[in-house]
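thread: overnight batch results

M.L. [08:02]
morning all. the overnight job finished for the chain we discussed friday. pasting input first so we're all looking at the same thing
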Amino acid sequence: MTAFGGVDLAVVLLYMAGVAAWGAWLGRGTSGGTGYFLGNRNLPWWAVMFSVVATETSTLTFLSVPGVSYLGTLAFLQLTLGYLVGRTVVAAVLLPAYYRGDLSTAYEFLGRRFGTATRRYASGGFMVARLLADSVRLFATAIPLAIVTGWSYPLSVLVIGAATLAYTYFGGIRAVVWVDALQMTLYVAGGVIALVLLNGAVDGGWPAILERAGAAGKLQTLDFSTSLSVTYTFWAGLIGGAFLSMASHGTDQLIVQRLLTCRDAVQSRRALIGSGFAVIGQFALFLFVGLGLWAFYDGRAFDSTDEIFATFIVSEMPAGVRGLLVAGVFAAAMSSLSSSINSLASASAYDFWGPATGRQDDDRAMLTAGKVFTLVWAGALVAGAVLFIPPEGAGAGSGDPSGASQRAAAVEVALAAASMVYGGLLGAFALGVFGRKVGQGGAIAGMTAGVATVVSLWAWGSVAWPWFVLVGLVVTTAVGTAWTATRSLLGASERRDPHS
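M.L. [08:03]
and the structure it wrote out:
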C-alpha cells in the first residue's frame, strides 16, 4: 500500500487549519444567543440546503455507501425516494407551525403546546440519542483514517474533535452552515474525481463497468419484497424512509435548527425540499463509485466495507489528490460533528438552562451559556467516541475478523439509536399538531411507550431499522390518545360519583 505522507499530509493539515480559521472568522461580531445559534435568522436558503445535506452526511456515507453497492446493488436508492416524500410532508405540516412562533429549538413547540415537562423530556431524548449516535460516527471516522494516515484511533478522534471545536466554538451556527457548504462541495468533488479515475483504471471505462454490473444484477434499483426483515425494499424505502425523514428533518434539533436560520418559511421550505433532491444525487454518486470499485477489484473480499474506498484512495490515487480525498473524509466527519455540537448546545441552553434560570430572554447570557455548553458537548462526544474504540488487536488493519464485526455493529448502533428515539419524537409532534385534546401526560406516556417498543424490536432483531420510526409513531400516538381518553373517562366517572 502506498505510504500516506508528504504532500498528502500537508493538504489534509492545511485544509483542516484553514477551515478552523475561516469558521472562527465567520463568527466575528456575534453578540448574542440568537446570532450564535440561529444566525440572526438571515442565512440564504441555498447555503442552509447544503448544510442540511452535509449535516446528515457522515464519513459513513462517504466511505460506506460505495461498499453497499460493491457488495450488493443500487437498491439503497429506494430510501432516498422516501426521504424526499418525508421532507415534503414536513415542509407542508411542521414548518408553518414552527414559523408561526419565534422558536429557538424544535422542542419549544412542544413546550408551548403541552408544557415545560414535555419540552424537556423530548429535548433530553434528543440529547441521549444524538450523543450515542454521533459518538459512534466519530469513532467510525477513526477507522478509515487509521488506514489512510497510520494514526491511532484516539489521535484521529482528537484531531477531528479539536479542529471542529475551533470553528464551532468561535463561529456558531453561521460558521457551521457556511463551512458545511464548503465541506459538501469537497466530498462530492472527491466522488466525482473517483468516477473519473475509475473510468481510466478499468479496461473499457464506464461502459464496460456498467455492462459487467448489469450482467451481475448489480444495477437492480427496485425490490418489491414485502418482508419487514429486509432492509432495502421499495416499501421500506418509500414508507419507512419517508417517516424516518419526517422525524429527522421535522423533529431533530440537528436539522430543525438549520431550517430556523432561514429568513422565513418560504426560504426554509426551499432549503428542505432542495436537500431531498441533493441527497438523491449524492447517494447515486457514491453508489456508482461502489460499482466502479467492484469492477476495479473484481469483487475482491475486504474485512470491512469501510476499507474498500479507503484502500482505493490510498493505493491508487496520485499524491495531492489522495490528500484531497482524505480531506473529504475529514470534511464529512467535521460536518456532522459540528452540527451535533451546536445543536446539543442550543438545546441545553434554550430548553434547560434558560428556562431554569429565567434568563432565556437575556441574549448575551444565552451566548455565554451556549459557548460553555459547546465545550461540554464537544468533550462528551470525543469521550464517547474513545469509549467505542475496540481493544488493541481488534482495530483497523489488524486483519482480525472480530474487528470487522465490531465496526459493523458500530454502524448499526448509529442508525438504530436515532431511529429508536425518532418515532417517539415524531409521535409527540403529531399529537401536538393533530391531537387537540391530548395533554402533557398523554404526550409523555406516548413517547415513553413508543421508544420502549422500538427498543424491544431492535433487541429482538425481527424488524429492519427503516420501519422503526413508523412503529414508534403509531405506538406513541395510540398510547397518547388512549391515555387522554382514559383520563377523560375517569374524570367523568369521578364527577358523577359524589363520594370521589
